[in-house]
Amino acid sequence: MEKLRIVFMGTPEFAVGILDSILKKEYNVVGVITAADKPAGRGQKIKYSAVKEYAVANDLKLLQPTNLKDESFLEELKALNANLQIVVAFRMLPKVVWAMPTLGTFNLHASLLPNYRGAAPINWAIINGETKTGVTTFFIDDKIDTGAIILSDETAIDPNESAGQLHDRLMLLGCETVNKTLALIEKKEAKALVQQETAETKTAYKLNKENCKIDWTKPAVEINNLIRGLSPYPASWCYFLDKNEELSVKIYESNVVEEAHTLAFGSIVCTKKEMKIAADGGFIQITSLQLPGKKRMKVSELLNGVSFTEEAKAQ
Predict the structure, then answer these.
(1) What are phi and psi of 29, to 5 degrees?
(2) pLDDT of 168
(3) Distance between CA atoms of 87 and 106, rounded to whole angstroms?
(4) What number of other Cβ atoms are within 10 A of residue 25's Cβ?
């Protein structure tokens, strides 16, 4: 059994959970690579990645290259003498990096590959109304998320689950899958299978302002899937038009009310405590949202201080 010397690469909170589980299993992590510090927020204060904060707190050797092909970085990486690299939510690696360790470099991806390759697999699985998803470990090659699969583990998606809730469950599932993968590699029992792509293979496109905007002419179920698939981040959004005012509103929580109506799609219907928006096949009942410059709030809180006319529309 070959003793593993691991370099871990990752940036967000999702990666922290995986790194923590590896250390708790007493694997030897000889180095951690994460994104360079960058200014964030209105004050432009320097912000550390979640992985950097964890690495510093646990006294792990840390590298933060801006250029992964930089000679001085490559020398430092080589000097760590790792025989395996693990990548979780980092960035595309050049071949000179992923081919360096003798046992290869594997990635944990939050989908059942080959479906949902790309930047936002958790979000798109919910947006597209999938009933199951999972995590996959695979050996990295020169394309994005296309390498030979080592292991995959599946889980059901709850009909009311948000992307944030699924993220947390997949992080826990990912911990198990990564540790099972490490055990196989350590025993030299990892059998990687080439991905079988079909015409139906779905992609996890990068999220942007346009594909996060709600189209109120769509079926209510699809709109609800979009809202929960983008909650809490980056959040679905639309405009509220009322009293000659246009507000850009983020919507975080909703449910479908299957009810026949003759209202124009996007019509906003309010009582003292509830807000419904007309869509194809029913209404979207909004339960949590955020107005410009305000904090996220429950609709019941909003309607305590804000009223809408009968002409109010979402678009």
Answers:
(1) -95, 105
(2) 96
(3) 6
(4) 12
Domain ranges of the chain: 5-186, 220-314
Topology alike, domains 5-186 and 220-314 = no
Which residue's entry shows tokens 């940036």?
Answer: 11
Ramachandran area for residue 59 (φ above 0: left; ψ -120 to 50: alpha; else beta): left
Instruction: Indicate the pairing of strand 275-279 with strand 282-290.
Output: antiparallel
In which residue are the tokens 């690495």 written?
A: 55
- Compute the average pLDDT of residues 193-205: 93
CA distance linking residue 314 with residue 23, whole number of Å: 49
Instruction: Quick: pLDDT tens for 45-64.
Output: 788 899 999 999 999 999 99
Query: Which regions of 175-290 does DSSP assign to beta strands (E)?
Result: 203-204, 236-242, 245-257, 268-270, 275-279, 282-290
The C-alpha atoms of residue 106 and residue 147 are separated, in whole angstroms, by: 9
Mean pLDDT of the chain: 95
Sign, CA torsion 28/34/39/40: negative
| Region 106-129 average pLDDT | 97
Write the secondary structure of 16-29 as one string of H (helix), E (strand) and C (coil): HHHHHHHHHCCCEE
- Which structure tokens are listed for 242? 């009322």
Burial of 13 (0-12, 13-18, 19+ CB in 10 A): middle
Annotation: CATH topology of 5-186: Rossmann fold (3.40.50)
Amino acid sitting at position 169: R
For residues 187 and 157, is the Cβ–Cβ distance under 8 A? no
Give the per-residue pLDDT at 46.
80
Q: Rounded to whole angstroms, how far apart are CA atoms 263 and 314?
A: 12
Give me the CATH topology for the region 220-314.
Methionyl-tRNA Fmet Formyltransferase; Chain A, domain 2 (3.10.25)
Strand-pairing partners, residue 203, are 117
pLDDT on residue 150: 98
Q: Which of 311, 190, 171 is nearest to 243 (CA)?
A: 311
